[in-house]
From TrEMBL:
NCBIfam families in alphabetical order: metG
Cofactor (UniProt): Zn(2+)
Name assigned to this protein: Methionine--tRNA ligase
Listed EC numbers: 6.1.1.10
Residues covered by the Methionyl/Leucyl tRNA synthetase domain: 4-406
Subcellular location, principal: cytoplasm
Motif range ('HIGH' region): 11-21
Subunit record text: Monomer.
Gene assigned in the entry: metG
Domain Methionyl-tRNA synthetase anticodon-binding: 417-569
Keyword Transport: no
Alphabetic keyword roster: Aminoacyl-tRNA synthetase, ATP-binding, Cytoplasm, Ligase, Metal-binding, Nucleotide-binding, Protein biosynthesis, Zinc
Family, similarity comment: Belongs to the class-I aminoacyl-tRNA synthetase family. MetG type 1 subfamily.
Residues binding Zn(2+): 143, 146, 156, 159
Length: 574
């Protein structure tokens, strides 16, 4: 058995995430973690909120709260939604933790000792009224190239030219609007990534061969364009402080590390938070430091995060000259769009995870999002597609099967699984088919191909319906009750098998299906090929109950009201 370390890209703290964030990072990681646990592997699934940086400070200011109070509340609010989605984190930490502060500072010291950090003076814009240095994107003004009057200090979004804040005409602070700005000289720490580029490339050559193209092509592109030295400190109040023992002057000036320096380190920090929560029983180091070859580390993220995970974080780890565990497999996603356009947090466009849960149970979203995950391309959420998929796959194919089988059997044979005849040719054929589909499903999950896995799962559900149509127990009962009992017993075994293998995708419904049967010791362990073929794990005589309706269909009226409430096709509306 392997030890699987799994992380999903850290959700940023400034607000509740949308369905794009969910399917691009946390949800697929959860499906994979659940699958591996069920197969008997040791799994550690780690995530956290990413709490530092200017947007967090600004969001706190807007909420009228001190930034630490704001982050604590926002963390709890996100955690509540993830609990609602049944994300099975072993730990959901906070990048503002003491653990992350200590480890981040350790990383910086080690990089410095090895000659990969340099102090450099840079010229930066200081706002007299805000009493702070302004990050480039918080300076706005008129673009010298196209005249657009809301260009940002790093880029003009109108003509897309890259800018320097001092290029802007009539520059002002995006925070206060004040134009009392001046350029001041200030010192920052630079990570000398250029010195590590060769090592990172060699590491990718040796380890990136099996990554999906999306991940490896982005990594290569960054290396080809040349790895630049990068400023890793900022003038903010909220962040991991530069350690005073190593950089007394910068520490006295209140410099903190840049959020992208400490965020990936929080994968380690959060693991230590997990260990510190149960001292003596949990060991974080064996996962991260001098980890042996039994540890396999898989990261989940969408494409914008790939450079940080495949190039910059590995460079940081390599530069410490310490045996930190590096990623083995990078599962990268494209975008989930909302009717072909971007989900937007700032414009509140699309569906947010809290609103989704208020509308419908988590399993509806989990199934749809994974079955339509943006793996090889961007994909779109539309309410029409969502309703069609819920109604057909979940309500008709799976839910209706469960309900039909259990209610008919209860009506004819009472509240125990009936015995009936011994399995015949139809059951042998069905067993072969199920074993084959199960092998396909497993192969796709092993290789993290979630859309294909969802297709195989759907095919498993459909096979039950075909079998039921073929045997037609509602007719069989009239001429051969023992034959009908066999059909129903076999179908009930399918329900139990569905409960076990659907668990990674739809955990709540899987629980409802599994607990319909009163089995003495049912640990929900994975199904073996022989068990799939035999379809006899639930023996005759097992008491069962009828679970409440698993999936309600989305009516045309509901569909129309969702489109109305959330906004549908922007082009159709225009
Ligand atoms: N539309 C999307 N589809 C898939 N993944 C996405 C999408 N938008 C963001 N992500 C991913 O979600 C994860 C968490 O992102 P984060 O909290 O930083 O939000 P973000 O990238 O700023 O998104 P947004 O700007 O839309 O709020 C990251 O891995 C990011 O790449
Ligand atoms: Zn411009």
């Amino acid at each position: 058995m392997a030890r699987h370390l799994i992380t999903s890209a850290l959700p940023y703290i400034n607000g509740i995430k949308h369905l794009g964030n969910m399917v691009g990072s946390m949800l697929p990681a959860d499906v994979y973690a659940r699958y591996l646990r069920q197969r008997g592997h040791e799994v550690l699934y780690i995530c956290a909120t990413d709490e530092h940086g200017t947007p967090a400070e600004l969001a706190a200011k807007e909420a009228g709260l001190p930034v630490d109070v704001f982050c604590a509340r926002a963390h709890d609010a996100q955690k509540a939604v993830y609990d609602g989605f049944e994300l099975s984190f072993d730990h959901f930490g906070r990048s503002s933790s003491a653990e992350n502060r200590d480890i981040t500072q350790e990383f910086a010291r080690a990089l410095n000792t090895n000659g990969f950090i340099e102090e450099r003076s840079i010229r930066q814009v200081y706002s007299l009224d805000d009493e702070r240095f302004l990050p480039d994107r918080y300076i706005v003004g008129t673009c010298p190239h196209c005249g657009y009057d809301k260009a940002r200090g790093d880029q003009c979004e109108n003509c897309t030219r890259v800018l320097d804040p001092t290029d802007l005409i009539e520059a002002r602070s995006a925070i206060s609007g004040s134009s009392r700005l001046e350029v001041r000289e200030t010192k920052h720490l630079f990570l000398l990534q250029s010195k590590l580029a060769g090592e990172v490339e060699a590491w990718i050559d040796a380890n990136g061969a099996e990554w999906p193209t999306l991940a490896s092509s982005i990594a290569r592109k960054w290396l080809t364009e040349g790895l630049q030295d990068r400023s890793i400190t900022r003038d903010l109040e909220w962040g991991v402080p530069v350690p005073a023992d190593t950089w007394p002057e910068l520490a006295a000036e209140g410099k903190v590390f840049y959020v992208w320096f400490d965020a990936p380190i929080e994968y380690i920090g959060s693991t230590k938070e997990w260990a510190d929560a149960d001292p003596g029983n949990r060991d974080w180091k064996s996962w991260w430091y001098e980890a042996d070859e039994t540890v396999r580390y898989t990261e989940f993220m969408a494409k914008d995060n790939v450079p940080f995970h495949t190039v910059m974080f590995p460079a940081t780890q390599l530069g410490t000259r310490e045996p930190w565990k590096k990623v083995d497999y990078v599962k990268a996603f494209n975008w989930l769009n909302y009717y072909g356009g971007k989900f937007s947090t700032s414009q509140r466009r699309g569906i947010f995870t809290d609103a989704a849960l208020e509308l419908l149970p988590a399993d509806y979203w989990r199934y749809f999002l994974m079955a339509n995950a943006p793996e090889s391309d961007d994909t779109s959420f539309t309410w029409e597609l969502f309703a069609a998929s819920v109604n057909k796959d979940l309500a008709d194919t799976l839910g209706n099967f469960v309900n039909r089988v259990l209610s008919f059997s209860r009506k004819r044979f009472g509240e125990q699984v009936p015995a009936g005849e011994a399995a015949g040719a139809a059951e042998v054929r069905l067993g072969e088919q199920i074993a084959g589909l199960l092998a396909e499903y497993e192969a796709h999950l092993e290789t993290l191909q979630f859309r294909k896995a969802a297709q195989a799962l759907r095919a498993l559900w459909s096979a039950g319906n075909s079998y039921l149509e073929e045997k037609a127990p509602w007719l069989e009962i009239k001429t051969n009750p023992e034959g009908a009992a066999l059909t129903l017993r076999t179908a009930m075994n399918l329900i139990h098998l569905y409960a076990v293998v659907s668990q990674p995708f739809i955990p709540a419904s899987a629980r409802a299906m599994r607990t319909a049967f009163e089995l003495p010791a049912d640990d929900a362990a994975w199904v073996t090929p022989d068990e799939a073929r035999a379809l006899a794990a639930v023996p005759a005589g097992t008491p069962f109950t009828l679970p409440p309706v698993l999936f309600a269909k989305i009516t045309d009226e509901e569909l129309a009201s969702y489109v109305e409430r959330f906004g549908g096709d922007p082009d159709a509306a225009a």
